[in-house]
Specification:
Blueprint: H1 6-17, H2 22-29, H3 33-46, H4 63-75, H5 81-84
Length: 85
């Protein structure tokens, strides 16, 4: 299921505020009705449609390094992880 951009979320909220049914908004946006219900609840609670920052460790490798490790792992399936880096 696709994620909605901030602009699409704002459009969905606008449609909901114009009294468009949830199912119709969901169909138009290409997501489930439950996703639209959660978006409406989030908007009612926070007044925003933006994603909140996610917690977790930041990446220390680049996209290029990630591809390199994956390619090596696929090429040399029997080696240990330390050798791949």
């Amino acid at each position: 299921m696709p994620r909605l951009s901030d602009q699409d979320r704002a459009i969905a909220i606008g449609l909901l505020e114009a009294h468009t049914p949830v199912k119709q908004v969901a169909r138009r946006m290409g997501v489930s009705p439950n996703a639209i219900r959660k978006l409406r609840l989030k908007f009612q609670q926070t007044g925003q449609v933006k994603d909140q920052p996610h917690s977790g460790r930041t990446k220390i490798t680049t996209v290029r390094e990630d591809r390199l490790v994956v390619n090596r792992a696929l090429r040399w399936r029997t080696t240990s992880g330390e050798i791949l880096i």
